[in-house]
Write a structure and sequence with these properties.
Elements lengths: L2 H15 L10 H23 L3 H11 L16
Helix pairs in contact: 1-2, 1-3
Length: 80
């Protein structure tokens, strides 16, 4: 498996494992864990952007992430 495929797989796994509702938790431990996961997803997306496959990352995002505005799960949150 080449680096591109490995990073895409990492990104997909991170999206599938992410607790998309972490912001709604009353337990600060879950919010902290969710924020850490979200940061890791952002870092992976930045790496994918650097190697020119951000369009594939966005397709994965659309497939996996819930499209619920109040959960701040829209793809643009990843960037500036």
């Amino acid at each position: 498996m080449n680096m591109r495929d490995q990073k895409l797989k990492e990104f997909e796994t991170a999206l599938r494992k992410h607790d998309w509702t972490f912001q709604m938790s009353d337990d600060s431990r879950w919010r902290i864990k969710g924020q850490k996961e979200r940061s890791e997803i952002k870092e992976l997306a930045a790496e994918l952007d650097e190697i020119g496959v951000l369009h594939i990352a966005k397709e994965l995002w659309v497939e996996i992430a819930p499209n619920v505005p109040m959960m701040n799960c829209q793809f643009p949150f990843l960037f500036k």
